[in-house]
């Protein structure tokens, strides 16, 4: 009789843990979260830092030479210009990359399409 009670208690414990795990997994996936808009760069950590975008001060990262590229579409950079972006990107610490991308946006410098994957890898790495 005691063995049956212990077995039922164990089974209920396992079911409870399984239910708890299932419910917590579903909490992480917020169903009401809208998908990113079509113009999103994919760097959600950057896009979601809206408060920094509102600030009017611009931080420079020893990249003043990039100001020459103001208004150039993100897919129209020359190889030399791409290397200028890449040189700055790879000198930044991981925690500076988001702020640098925001700085570029404030300066109306479009981040090169060809470097977005590299930047995201550095952010996640």
SSE layout and pairings?
Blueprint: H1 2-28, H2 44-47, H3 50-54, H4 79-89, H5 94-106, H6 116-124
What is the element string, with H for helices and E for strands?
Answer: HHHHHH
Write down how many β-strands occur, each being a DSSP E stretch of 2 or more residues. Answer: 0
User: Over the alpha carbons, how many angstroms does the gyration radius reach?
Assistant: 24 Å
What is the averaged pLDDT score?
79
Poorly predicted spans: none
Structural class: mainly alpha
The oligomeric state is: single chain
Shape: rod-shaped
Distance between the termini: 56 Å
Number of helices: 6
What is the helical fraction, as a range of percent? 55-70%
Fraction in beta strands:
under 5%
The largest pleated sheet is described as: none
